[in-house]
Design brief:
This protein is an alpha+beta fold. The protein is 64% helix and 11% strand.
């Protein structure tokens, strides 16, 4: 006869065994799948647990896709789950695409999901286009007037380009480039102000959505403002630069003239010094001539008279203000 302790242990072991059996054999999930007309075996659910795959996730995904009329196998769902994908978003995206008549298969949907993009949001963006506001884009027309334009780009997702396609930043950069090109090629800024649709037509004709994950539906110019007169500013800056160059060249010529003048003065002082030196040697030469008998007293008096006569004539020929007489 069993003791009360043994009976309690036996009941506890039985309960644990039943819960373990229910865990390994998800009968409730299998029964729910059968009621939803999803063909999935109980053994397959057990093997999912052994493969570390959530049987509830796979079963619910199979039930949802079957009710929506999609043909997806359990192996495909398991593979995507083991690859780290978001099964629920993929199923929701496939159902939304099917209802909106957007061509999207399970392989492409899983590829988009594994690429890091939200496949469900991409399908929603294909159904409901998105408006992207560009930042202010400044450009200068040929007449030198700067224009600042803002545009609204209406895009929708390009499902086939979501994997490997460029994003929103590329669209904005290309639209900005198109705006700058259109304004810059205009001969007059008034042409752009009068016909802003020229920008839209030019930008759309360039096929800016090529290689991107979006399809551009329309480009609308929201606002155009007049900026600075860049042409006049450039001319003013050029005039100031030319003035600085002219001043620099004039200063260079002045410096050269000053240097030439100083050089001439130096040469004049040098010549004057030589004259003074030569004049200082005259008395010595006269003394030497007297000593050697080459010069007599009468000759010396004649030379003094000639010198005095020359000084008198020079003094008479000068104006009275410059003679030095009081």
């Amino acid at each position: 006869m069993e003791t009360p302790l043994q009976l309690v242990l036996l009941i506890t072991g039985g309960v644990i065994a039943i819960f373990l059996l229910l865990y390994l054999l998800p009968v409730n999930l299998w029964f729910t799948a059968q009621l939803s007309n999803v063909k999935i075996s109980l053994l397959n659910l057990v093997l999912m647990r052994l493969r570390k795959v959530s049987p509830a996730l796979v079963t619910n995904a199979m039930i949802t896709s079957t009710k929506a009329g999609l043909k997806i196998s359990t192996n495909e769902i398991e593979t995507h789950y083991l690859a780290g994908g978001n099964v629920n978003k993929v199923i929701k995206a496939l159902i939304s695409a099917d209802k909106a008549n957007i061509p999207l298969d399970f392989k492409l949907a899983t590829a988009i999901d594994l690429a890091g993009r939200d496949v469900f949001d991409a399908v929603q963006l294909s159904v409901n286009p998105q408006v992207i506001n560009t930042p202010p884009v400044a450009a200068v027309a040929k007449d030198g007037i700067q224009l600042i334009a803002k545009a609204r780009v209406t895009v929708r997702a390009n499902i086939n380009q979501l994997v490997g396609g460029a994003g929103e930043e590329t669209i904005l950069a290309r639209v900005g480039e198109g705006i700058v090109t259109t304004i810059g090629s205009s001969s007059n800024h008034k042409e752009v102000l009068e016909n802003p649709d020229r920008i839209s037509k030019t930008v759309l004709s360039k096929g800016l959505d090529s290689g991107t994950a979006f399809e551009i539906l329309s480009i609308d110019i929201a606002d155009i403002d007049i900026g600075e007169n860049v042409g006049a500013k450039l001319q003013t800056d050029q005039a100031e630069a030319d003035l600085k160059v002219a001043n620099a060249r004039a200063e260079e010529r002045r410096a050269m003239a000053v240097a030439t003048e100083q050089e001439m003065r130096a040469k004049a002082q040098e010549a004057k010094a030589k004259v003074i030196e030569a004049e200082s040697e005259v008395p010595l030469a006269l003394a030497e001539a007297f000593k050697n008998g080459n010069l007599g007293i009468m000759d010396y008096y004649k030379m003094q008279n000639i010198q005095a006569d020359t000084d008198m004539r020079t003094s008479i020929s000068k104006p009275s203000g410059k003679t030095g007489n009081k």
